[in-house]
Amino acid sequence: MARLSFREQVLRVREDAIVAAVNRLLADKGFDLMTVDEVAADVGIAKASLYKHFPSKEALAAAAMVRLLQRTLAVVDEQAQVVGAPAIQRLQAVVRWALEVQLAGEMPSLPSQNSSLRAELMGHKEYLDLLMQVSEHLGAWIVQAQAEGDIDPGLPAEVVLYSVFARACDPVPGFLKAGGQHADAQIVAWVMGSFFRGLRPAG
Amino acid sequence: MARLSFREQVLRVREDAIVAAVNRLLADKGFDLMTVDEVAADVGIAKASLYKHFPSKEALAAAAMVRLLQRTLAVVDEQAQVVGAPAIQRLQAVVRWALEVQLAGEMPSLPSQNSSLRAELMGHKEYLDLLMQVSEHLGAWIVQAQAEGDIDPGLPAEVVLYSVFARACDPVPGFLKAGGQHADAQIVAWVMGSFFRGLRPAG
DNA sequence: GTCTATAGCCAGATAGAC
DNA sequence: GTCTATCTGGCTATAGAC
């Protein structure tokens, strides 16, 4: 990693602040309801300045997703270095982390339908690359957990992988939290418990 | 039910057509990307005419949700009349139906975040009434299934109820269908299997 | 790179004739 | 109740000075 000049560091810090604000707003209101004006106001700079850093609203969202995947990959790497743990335990750690991020209101949510956004993401090399890396790690653990008897081998790994990703946008934790009756840890325990029990071999 | 005049019948048919179009578009693109112009074009009337039937875009969406809940309640009532079936079986039938509707591309999806829409729904008596009726039926079956040993009694009924509702907007079936590798019936079987296995008592 | 000011557009909602 | 034509507001994006 090359040393960065002072100028570049300032730039980097500002862009981090922008992406953090976008992440927060995406988690809060979603892509369509998030306005670029809000992002600018949140960061404390003019809207036109934002457009010097990112060429479009879609690019802002893509940057937030890249940041999320980077954080995810860090968690995955951390789990990969735990020695001697069964694969199911590594998977559980990642899902637990995702649920905690979601309950903390820091999980950016994108509409699965917006086409301009999909186009941007599908053309975003870094995003696709990170998504692939995460998928490959998780996929390997899923196959391993099937071999170890913790996940039903009759379930295609693809189905399990999609289900794992889907935990990141599961509306159930949010509903339960909104009810205000239960502690976050309890909610996480319920969701994790029923999810992983559902993946178990039948019988 | 009073006889309707011819005029009223025509009105009713037209409004049914409008709500059906809204349902289709909501399933296809979601609330934010659906435009009132599209709805009008789809029905084949002018946009201004739409506004004679429904006062706002939010009201259109609410009408579609009411229609969905009416269909749901019909399925629930049908299951309620099956004699001698365990409660878990009735729940499974309802979830199966919801998954099939979703795979057929007929499940309207609303953003859980849009505040103007939430306000409209929370003020919509018929919507709330239907939602309550469906919830009460399902809630009773959940408690019964717990007593019958098919659902973990340690799981609050509320958690189970939310999880059931969440199956209606589960992204996993859609992803699997988009992959094109699997038949709808197979997808439904996988999702149903892992979901209900996850609710089972541990051990 | 930052700002103020504004262009351009699109979508929800309405006016008013018939 | 239906239409055509239009209004209105808000949002993305940009121009141009500093």
Radius of gyration based on Cα positions of chain A: 19 Å
Query: What's the number of extended β-strand segments of chain A?
Result: 0
Helix content of chain A: over 70%
Which CATH class of chain A? Mainly Alpha
- Major protein interface: A-B, 36 and 36 residues
What does the secondary structure layout of this molecule look like, with pairings?
The structure is a homodimer of 203-residue chains.
Chain A lengths: L5 H24 L6 H8 L3 H7 L3 H24 L6 H17 L11 H8 L2 H23 L9 H10 L4 H9 L4 H16 L4
Helix pairs in contact in A: 1-2, 1-4, 4-5, 4-6, 4-7, 5-7, 5-10, 7-8, 9-10
The structure holds a DNA duplex (18 and 18 nucleotides).
